[in-house]
Design brief:
Largest sheet: 3 strands, antiparallel
Radius of gyration: 21 Å
Strand content: 5-15%
Order of helices and strands: HHHHHEEEEE
Number of strands: 5
Number of helices: 5
Strand order of the largest sheet: 2-1-5
Shape: elongated
Structural class: alpha+beta
Length: about 140
C-alpha cells in the first residue's frame, strides 16, 4: 500500500502589525513637516501621550483617530492607507527575498527558491523527514 504524500510543513511568518506601519508613516510625515507632537495632537484633538503611543505602534487607533491625525497633518486617510499598503508590500517582498531555510536533518543552511506568502508554505519541500524552519 502506498503512503500518503505529506504536505510541506507550514511555516508561520511574522508580519508587521498595521498599527506599527501607520505609526511609522504618521511620525515620518509629522517630522518632515517639522511639527511637534504637541502641535499635531492639539490640532487632532487628542492627547500628546496618545499620539506618541500611536506613532510608536503601541496603540491600535480607531479610524476616527487616524482621520483626525491625518487632517491635522494635511493628509488624507486614503493616502495613509495607500502608503501603508505600499510599505506592507515592500516588507513582504523583502521578507520573501531574505527567507532562509534551515535543514536540521543535514545541518545545512540553504536559501529557498520561493516563499509563498499567501499560504506561508516554504519550498523546496523537505526530504527524509527534514524539519524546515524559517530564519
Amino acid at each position: 500500500m502506498s503512503q500518503p504524500t505529506q504536505a510541506p510543513p507550514r511555516v508561520r511568518t511574522i508580519q508587521p502589525l498595521l498599527r506599527e506601519v501607520y505609526g511609522r508613516l504618521l511620525r515620518r510625515l509629522r517630522q518632515r513637516q517639522g511639527r511637534t507632537l504637541a502641535e499635531v495632537a492639539a490640532e487632532a484633538g487628542i492627547s500628546m501621550a496618545y499620539l506618541s503611543e500611536v506613532e510608536r505602534g503601541l496603540k491600535e487607533p480607531s479610524s476616527e483617530i487616524l482621520a483626525a491625525v491625518c487632517g491635522a497633518l494635511d493628509a488624507t486617510l486614503v493616502g495613509l492607507v495607500g502608503a501603508a499598503h505600499e510599505e506592507l508590500r515592500e516588507l513582504a517582498e523583502q521578507a520573501a527575498a531574505e527567507a532562509r531555510v534551515l535543514d536540521l536533518a543535514s545541518h545545512r543552511i540553504r536559501h529557498t527558491r520561493r516563499v509563498d506568502t499567501a499560504s506561508t508554505r516554504v519550498g523546496p519541500t523537505a526530504r527524509d523527514g527534514a524539519l524546515l524552519l524559517a530564519a
